[in-house]
Amino acid sequence: MFDTEISNLSRQGMTTGGIALHLGLEPQYVRQMVSAEVTGLNGKPVYIDTAAEPLPKLASAPPPQKRQPTASRVNRRAAAEKRRAAILQKLAELNTALEA
């Protein structure tokens, strides 16, 4: 009944635990279904461990590049700084007026 759904979700990269939660099934059942279609080099089923650490990325992959802030983000920050400066200026003026 859930065979094709389990198969499709597994091929999309969802873990067996995620599939079990998504479909409301027992993780053991999902693990059996997934391992039935995934076989190792020696012909034995490969059980997918959902608690395992993710595989490390290949060393040849380029390092992630830090994105440059967009112009609108830079402008918003500058405007916020101006507003803060104006508020601090006003507070300083009020403070000196109260002290006098």
According to DSSP, the number of beta strands is 0
Shape: elongated
* Quaternary assembly: single chain
Helix/strand structural class: mainly alpha
Rg calc: 28 Å
Counted by DSSP, the helix tally is 4
Secondary-structure element pattern, one letter each = HHHH
Q: Kindly, what is the distance between the CA atoms of the first and last residues, rounded to a whole number of angstroms?
A: 82 Å
What's the rounded overall pLDDT mean?
Answer: 76
Relative helix content: 55-70%
Major beta sheet, specifics? none
Number of domains: 2
The parts where pLDDT drops under 50 for at least 5 residues are: none
Region (Disordered): 54-80
From the structure above, extract its key features.
mainly alpha; single chain; 4 helices; 100 residues; 2 domains
What does this structure look like?
- The chain is mainly α and 100 residues long.
- It contains four helices and no strands.
- It folds into two domains: 1-51, no CATH class; 71-100.
- The longest helix has 29 residues, at 71-99.
- The chain is elongated.
- The chain starts with a helix and ends with a helix.
- Residues 54-80 are annotated as: Disordered.
